[in-house]
## 1
Amino acid sequence: MRVLMVSDVYFPRVNGVSTSIETFRRTLVAQGVEVRLVVPRYGDEPDEEGVIRVAGRPVLGDPEDRLVGWRAMHRAVLDAARDCDLVHIQTPFIAHYAGLKAARQLGLPVVATYHTLFEEYLQHYARFIPAGWLRGQARAFSRRQCNQLDAVIVPSTAMRQRLDAYGVTSPMHVLPTGIPLAQFAAGDGMVFRLRHGIAEDRPVALFVGRVAHEKNIGFLLEALAHARQTRPDTLLVIAGEGPAMSDLKAQTAALGLQDSVIFIGYLDRKQALPDCYAAADVFVFASRTETQGLVLIEALAAGVPVIALSEMGTTDILAPGRGTFSPPADPKAFGETLGHFLNHPAAWRHLYDEAPRYAQEWTDVAMAERLATLYHQLAGVQCSPEMPLTAAA
């Protein structure tokens, strides 16, 4: 079986969509599914088998992203889809319309993954537009796009419920992105601490993700100020880059936290990122717009407990017995919880034990099996008897 994925983002652009695409491309091979990919060109990326790059220009105000031309994207998608069994759209911009048009022209089934909660996302980037009007437009936009499809994949139950409320009638399937557990369990925390000059005994709270306004990182800075009242040596490590960086550095200075926060940028996922997780005592997260919260699972796989707000996609993860704790959505309460966690590790020991056990439910291989099954159902393609049901050990 051959599937065409089409997206407005992919590596070297680092975000959850890029990670999801790469994870499924890698693991679907063992399920007998060949994945072809059409994505933007960012610079001089080397040629990669199965990846078609379309030239684009930097997005105004967000130079990490690329805007591809409609004609070039549609032509590339149409050519790439001709010998495919199904089209899988990953983003709702030019890629959505190019993928949809090509699929309809060729008579192929088309599915999309709803990765981003635009109702909450857009207000951070169009603050001059009334929030109520913007929410309504975002809901209508998502409803129209989703109802054009043969099926919609959502990463969490909360996201399916939200799309139900929008009036989406296309069949929806809850299917999160899995992770390579062994990779994140193999990090070396001391290597990371030595590289960044962090003392072996200094408590580290970690955030990993895009440094963007919708991630609510400013909340974590306020919480850190409260945590330092009971644990003054607490260090917040922020791993990522993005458009909110300058604002967050200014907030860090305004709160007097210059010696308590380090921004380390993006990290290589194969080794540097697992080392970063292993160096942390706790993972902290305050985003209210996540459709899944993949970084929470990565932290748990590394054996790192999670303290996070229970919002949208993270609610599928944050529950008793899973190595997590969800304090009230108040910086003071969050900070006091963080301080208590760092000062009384024995009282929270159970979270360290629970974290890697729960992460076992989120393997990339298991999620690839589920996606391959859905592909075959949508395309009406029978599984061949020789097709392996699981990846090779």
## 2
Amino acid sequence: MKLQIADLEFEPLYSHEAIQQRVAEIAQDINNDFEGRQPIFVGILNGSFMFASDLVKEIVVPCEVTFTKLASYFGGLSSTRTIRDDFDLHVNITGKDVILLEDIIDSGNTIKYLIEKLQVRNPASITVCTLLFKPDAVEHSIEELKYVAFQIPNKFVVGYGLDYKELGRNLRGIYSKIG
């Protein structure tokens, strides 16, 4: 089933059911790894809002949830390499375990920027959890990356929080650009 969003065509990559299964599996891993601890989940808006919401519903360890907003895509098909920092965390992370929830890691510039920004606040740990990871596009080693729902080819994707020209975030599945 092809899907038209603005001027581009997309085809299904992952169904809603496949996404929910992986989210539940990752949540179980986090529950096991953080047993006896109280992590702070930091969703990176806008793209991670669906992933963050579904993931934290499956978390059984005590936790806090907050958000920050960064952007490196501005309506196009690739990162601009310019990171816009729209709003900062409003919680103290000193001495706490922080789990960053990202929608997609491609170049790695945005997550690297955020990790460096948060490290100066002396958290006990920083761990990265991403819905999508493009290993062929990544330009930086991300030692903190521990949880990956799906590794994908270096294709442009929309749905489940990810957008093209601010459209498509509401789709339940993930779709890849045709061509």
## 3
Amino acid sequence: MIVGGPNARTDYHINQTPEWFYQYKGAMMLKVVDEGKFRDIIIREGDMFLLPGNTPHNPVRFANTVGVVLEQRRPKDSLDRMRWYCASCGEVVHEAAFHCTDLGTQIKAAVQDFKGDNDKRTCGKCGTLADWAPKPGSIKDPNLE
């Protein structure tokens, strides 16, 4: 799929199959959870990146950027997951699972469900209310460096 920016989400997508990213215009940030640690991967214009399956990831796209993402067809028994983490303590706040048939529609529905339910947004460990969208200015745009 061809994806342009900007976007504003806090969820991490998890699917069993790898994803291939190619950044056609501008740079993007791929937030990942790698061996339990949060890290940001900058994919610059002209760069490619292969994300291993089962890696929680949040693709952050900025204004006037365009990228290509190739995803494999999902096996019939696979589930995609959307996961939200607590910004205060790092615990999983909520996770939604679905068999992927239309990723765009299903992600939107999961985000809307999370956005509208404070119980799902409240961290069970520390009580922090998780944001459904990043706070303005909280993510540094690598295109402005």
## 4
Amino acid sequence: MKKRVLIYILSVFSLGCVSCGDFLDEYSQNQRYAETAQDLDELLRGECFMAFQSSYSSNTQETMSYSSGLTMNYPWLHVMDDDAEEFVSGGLTYTANYPRNVLGAFYHWGADPFLTLENAQYKDNDWEKFYKHIGVLNSIIYMADDFRSKEEDIELLNRVEGEARFLRAGYYFLLVNIYGMPYCKTTASKDAGVPLKVTEHIEDKYFNRSSVEAVYLQIVADLQRAAVCLKGITPSSTLRVGATAANALLSRVYLYMENYEACIAAANEAMAGTYSVMDLNNWTSGQNVVSWTSPETIFTQGGNSVILTFLSYSSGWSGSTPISQALSFQASEDLLQCYAAGDLRRTAFFKSSLHAAIPDKYKTWVDYNDTDEVGMDFLIRLPEVILNKAEALAMLNRDGEAKTELEKLLSKRFAVAPSVTETGEALIDFIRDERRRELCFEGHRWFDLRRYAVNSIRPLPENFRIRHQNNDYEANSMTWYENGYYELNAYTQDHAAWIVPIPNYAIEFNRGELQNEIRPNRELIRN
């Protein structure tokens, strides 16, 4: 009889375990048994991928229930950067669950971002979900290795370990870029990252922040091992992980670390696969640009928090007169102005209603039974890999090769692609702008701005600012008007506001071993 292995699936937001029995008793109902590689695969599929969340709504205005924390994946990530601005219209009858109220403190870079504009506190569920996934993945990785001496299905064990390591790397990448400092080559070894736990056993200790460098080195090690384990294994769909996904994410991680030669090598591995860039010259109105069956989608999981955060193109907003109020977000004018004349993405990526420009890469609200739905909360596409490589080449002063990579993308984004004439620093800036245009609302912009700020070759200027306008309601006339703006300064001057605070429940459980920098109160600047 095979050895029965017990897995404890703990809510590891605590990042540790006290020695008393009460803690284990609390989670005893979550224990699982695994005896075979198939058991591990089922556990991986059931506990470790982001839960799919249907985003379809026929309502005229999306709402967010937050009494137990938000169920969608980190929607606030999309409203902190310069690609979003608020959209308000209609009467002020009920505001509590509208995106503007729930995410307003993130949009304003407030001292406590998990406090609504109406001063209601809500829980950060994402921290807990990330570490719960990681806790199970740690056990799966350990047991996959242990089972190799007992299990005939080595290929399945390799796939399970490869996917588990990819997912663990992906979750730590999100954690460190949300809750930690950006990777700076000269200071990463001492900059505050996030707690790092990769062992399968329960540790009787409290956890503190590991360095940014330590977290990134673990991410790299996991992705390198994932690529080895998954080599030659074809994933059943883009909802499962293959070696191409591991190399694609590795190219992103190396780019963040300024390891440009390694970024190029990983990108080359990913680009050698069977994926291709979708030609927008063949795109027709109403067609999804991003989907899980797209030829450029390498991996996708989770849901589409953008669709529940930004104004949706529902029937109530398709006519000339709004039939309901809206307290939401829209694509910023600053982003829209980045698209040159003839850029097909301006039409394909956005729906320009009579009221607002709406992110429209995936038209979730069009069809409830859409079989092509994609999770944009964790999405890897071939265009990103091309841009990763192009940026790395430009950083190494290999301008001609960088332009060759850009042409692979631009030829599919214009009827007649413009020539790229920029060189040196201007070329780096062009590639960064191209990254903004191509990858908007896929969770890249906030992270990119953070890494640009500390880049050793081409840092953002000290006068870089993000301004988010604020609107107020005039009851007598029942109209909204712009009454000022909030401003986020450059990272070097305002770095605490560029880092999402670790939730209080994790700090309290770890007896103060985890610390957050104090985020300043941010005052409205009157027009």
